[in-house]
Design a protein that fits this description.
The structure is a single chain. By secondary structure, the chain is mostly helical. Helices cover about 70% and strands about 0% of the residues. Helix 3 packs parallel to helix 5 and helix 12 packs antiparallel against helix 13. It is globular and about 55 Å long. It starts with a helix and ends in a 10-residue tail after the last helix.
């Protein structure tokens, strides 16, 4: 690809990402298609197009885009995850479970055991079999053994997958600076699985705000219980329906910090800050700046004063 073509490709991709953040899905789809037309050998714009098509209510188109990405990068995590989600929407549950099986194997091979366990759990939740139950149980035992070796032999709680149902395990995070609630009788924490059902119902009726709020609440529950991979997934699910939600974007950056991915988190905060400033949203920009400074105190980009 010549330098000029590559610059056009990057600009089309950037335009698509900005359009998604602003909720302009049709514009985003057009930009991603332009990027694909410029260069047909890159998976990224196809994966991005698949995600947008899914949010536009076109699971068939999404599946086609994800399949195109996987033809170029067969083990791409985001494309496999998107393909599984599209298949679930299409009620092709047997195929979806097989994709989650594959995703679990790839993640385990990469040493990403928590993420592998989440994928195995989803496969088991969609279509329970003894083989899937054993695979998920084995991953859970590996995680417990790792945690025991690192922190003594305290119990590490990792829930088993539900035996039935299509609820997807996802999650979100609290942000610094929130005032503590007055002392009141403790209330039971909302069930993240029930919140994901609420998310799916809100999405089906086109209620974007309720869907995003349900995904955020589900993710908070998962994060509070130590399920960082599930929290990542819920944040992404929420952003899929409400791409301009600052809290959801901050969540993903926060989760990156939780995992020690400070470089990735810093870049995410920086991009979110620039978009807020570009939109003239002073309140959002200040929230991003304060959050980034609190989570990455050694990063001079977010230092106050």
């Amino acid at each position: 690809m010549t330098e000029t073509l590559f610059e056009r490709y990057k600009e089309a991709l950037r335009s698509g990402h900005v359009a998604v953040l602003r909720g302009r899905f049709e514009d985003a789809a057009a930009a991603y298609r332009e990027a694909i037309a410029i260069t047909g050998d890159r998976a990224v714009p196809r994966t991005a197009l698949g995600s947008v098509q899914l949010r536009l209510g076109d699971p068939e188109g999404a599946l086609e885009a994800f399949d195109g990405a996987l033809a170029l990068e067969p083990d791409d995590d985001a494309s496999l995850l998107g393909r599984a989600q599209a298949l679930v929407v299409l009620r092709r549950t047997t195929e979806a479970a097989l994709v989650y099986d594959r995703l679990a194997g790839i993640r385990a091979g990469q040493g990403r055991l928590p993420d592998a366990a989440e994928a195995a759990r989803r496969a088991l939740a969609i279509e329970p079999t003894d083989e899937r139950r054993a695979r998920h149980g084995g991953l859970v035992e590996e995680l417990r053994a790792m945690a025991g070796a690192e922190a003594g032999d305290d119990a590490v709680e990792v829930e088993s997958a539900p035996a039935t149902g299509l609820a997807v395990d996802l999650g979100v995070a609290d942000h610094p600076g929130l005032d503590a609630a007055p002392a009141e009788p403790p209330q039971p924490a909302p069930d993240p699985e029930a919140l994901i059902v609420a998310f799916e119902e809100a999405s089906a009726r086109g209620d974007v705000e309720d869907a995003a709020a349900a995904a955020l609440a589900a993710a908070i529950g998962h994060r509070n219980e130590g399920r960082v991979a599930a929290a990542f997934d819920a944040g992404l699910l929420g952003i899929g329906v409400c791409p301009g939600d600052v809290d959801l974007h901050l969540l993903l950056a926060d989760l990156a910090v939780d995992r020690g991915w400070t470089g990735q988190a810093g870049e995410a905060y920086r991009q979110l800050l620039r978009l807020a400033e570009l939109d003239g949203d002073d309140a959002a920009a200040e929230l991003v700046r304060r959050t980034a400074a609190a989570r990455l105190p050694d990063d001079p980009r977010f230092a106050s004063g």
